[in-house]
Every structure is written in C-alpha cells, then in structure tokens.
Amino acid sequence: MIGLISCQKKTIENKVRNNVLSEVKIDNLTLSDDELGFGCITEYYRKGEKMHDEIYVQTSSKDDKAWINYISINGKKEIFYSNNEDTKMAVDEEGYNLRLENEHYIVEIDAKISEENMQSDSALASGILTITRKSDQAKTTINFEGGTAC
C-alpha cells in the first residue's frame, strides 16, 4: 500500500512539473533585418541593463497595414499582430496600456512616457510588461525601459 501511494504521488508531481505549472520566461530577443518593417520601431529592454537585453520589438508590417510585435517566451519567438486601435486599452500624455494576444499568450504593457522629442519623432518609456499563458494562466512580469523612434 505504501508503494502504491508513493508511485501515485511521484506521477502527480511529474505532471505538475512537466505539463501544468512550468514557468513563463521572457528571453532576450534577436531579430533579423528581414523581420523589421519601415517607419517607426519600438524597442524595450530589461530595466537596468543599459539597453542591451532586448525583450520586445514592435515594427510596422511590410504592407503598413498593421504592427508586428515580437517577444521571445520560453525560447520561442512569439508574434502578435495588431493595429493602433485594437490593442490600446488606455492612452494619455503620460503613457499607454496595450493588450496583445496570440494563440498561446496575452501580453499587457503598462508604459509611462518619460521624455519626448518632437524634432526626432521619438519617445522614451519605461514600465511593466506582463505575460499570461492562456492554457494555465501562469503569469510573469518584467520591468522594462526603451522607446520608440520614427
């Protein structure tokens, strides 16, 4: 009887570890020139890493009809498509909130604008990026800094 209970406990622990509650990890992102569109680009980096560890990029699509958003999650480059109106939850002169979604994840970006330069058409921002895995609602957050240039 003790052997049966022990085997069942190990099976349950392995299931939780291997399938259900695995960590959601944001990895550094690498893109090729072919993946970048023309025009404006937004790049976010891990806060405090002096803009070396890129974690998020938003760029225009090749046909200029939408935005392409890239994030590397658990070693896989995830792509989220959006346009200006379908993802913005709130926008004002101090910052913005975006919600992006693909088949596997929900990404929420809460950004505060720290500096704008109208002459160079750029802005610096910092904030929190939250990723939720749809299958089990596992979640992770990361502080970011970066900006947008056009």
What is the rounded distance between the termini? 68 Å
**Elements, N to C (H/E):** HEEEEEHEEEEE
Give the strand tally.
10
Q: Give the percentage of residues in beta strands.
A: over 45%
> Describe the biggest sheet?
10 strands, antiparallel
Low-confidence stretches: 1-18
Number of helices: 2
Shape: globular
- The residue-averaged pLDDT reads 81
Q: In CATH's first tier, which class applies?
A: Mainly Beta
Considering DSSP H and I runs of 4 or more, what fraction of the residues is helical? 10-25%
Describe the structure.
The N terminus is likely disordered. It is globular, with a radius of gyration of 19 Å. 15% of the residues lie in helices and 51% in strands. The longest helix has 19 residues. With 150 residues, it is α+β, with helices and mostly antiparallel strands. It has a single domain, classed as Beta Barrel (Lipocalin), CATH 2.40.128. The chain is built from 2 helices and 10 strands; from the N terminus they run H-E-E-E-E-E-H-E-E-E-E-E. The relative contact order is 0.19.
Key attributes of the depicted protein:
about 150 residues; 10-stranded antiparallel beta sheet; 2 helices; disordered N terminus
Would you kindly provide a brief summary of this structure?
The protein is about 15% helix and about 50% strand.
Question: What topology emerges from the helices and strands here?
Answer:
Layout: H1 2-20, E1 26-27, E2 41-46, E3 54-60, E4 67-73, E5 76-82, H2 84-87, E6 88-92, E7 95-101, E8 105-117, E9 122-133, E10 139-149
Antiparallel strand pairs: 1-4, 2-3, 2-10, 3-4, 4-5, 6-7, 7-8, 8-9, 9-10
